[in-house]
Design brief:
7-stranded parallel β-sheet; Rossmann fold; 7 strands; alpha/beta; 7 helices; globular
């Protein structure tokens, strides 16, 4: 039985992926702050991803992993011209720094034959939408971190696979936070676009993580058929 750790497993995409992997017969660990919101059958592991020492402490409790899904993320509408730098830092800590640190720590827990790391990026990591702000910068960084890690692993002969999954609009609590103060715009967006569901993202994540040996899916891009950009 494979063991998978999913960050941000208490809500949204992370929760859907954790539950989907559990249905695939895996042992699933949910790393998050709100462990009381984890689905049934998910092993809880409390951690605040904004704090590197707490991440290291959480991983020190583990003895084996086969899969790491870096799903946790923050999204504030914080512009470069006049946004809140504290929000920039918080997004960077969770979306990029924590993702990199979790990946590094997971490598020592993978089997000698290698594991699999799946990073949740975003369509905002492939093009910058008008409201992209600092959030888009972090998602471009996720792709760069993923590519750098993949290159380092291959040069050292490590068979660990590294994949990215980049969705467009997904109807999750993260979207509500991103549109905070612009509730009318969010309502219009929901009315005009049949958004992706967390379950659709989870189905694609399972496809990536169960690809045959020797197959490494670098980046899967997903948008609702209604989303134009």
């Amino acid at each position: 039985m494979k063991t998978a750790l999913v960050t941000g497993a208490s809500s949204g995409i992370g929760k859907a992926i954790a539950e989907a992997l559990l249905r695939e017969g895996m042992s699933v660990i949910g790393l998050c702050r709100s462990v009381d919101q984890l689905g049934d059958g998910i092993t809880p592991l409390t951690c605040d991803l904004r704090e590197p020492q707490k991440i290291k402490s959480a991983f020190s409790k583990l003895d084996h992993l086969d899969i790491l899904v870096n799903s946790a993320g923050l999204a504030y509408l914080s512009r470069l011209c006049d946004g809140d730098p504290d929000q920039w830092e918080e997004m960077w800590r969770v979306n990029v720094h924590a993702l990199g640190l979790c990946s590094q720590l997971a490598l020592s827990l993978f089997p000698q034959t290698g594991g699999h790391i799946l990073n949740l990026s975003s369509m905002s990591g492939h093009r910058v939408p008008p409201t992209g702000g600092f959030y888009a910068s972090t998602k471009f960084a996720v792709r760069a971190v993923s590519e750098a890690l993949r290159s380092e692993l291959k040069s050292s002969g490590n068979k660990t696979r590294v994949s990215c999954l980049s969705p467009g609009f997904v109807d999750t609590p993260l979207l509500d936070k991103y549109f905070a103060g612009r509730e009318e715009q969010l309502a219009e967006t929901r009315a005009s676009i049949d958004m992706l569901t967390p379950e659709a993202i989870a189905a694609t994540a399972v496809h990536i993580l169960t690809a045959p040996e020797g197959v490494e899916i670098h980046d899967a891009l997903m948008k609702s058929a209604d989303q134009t950009m």
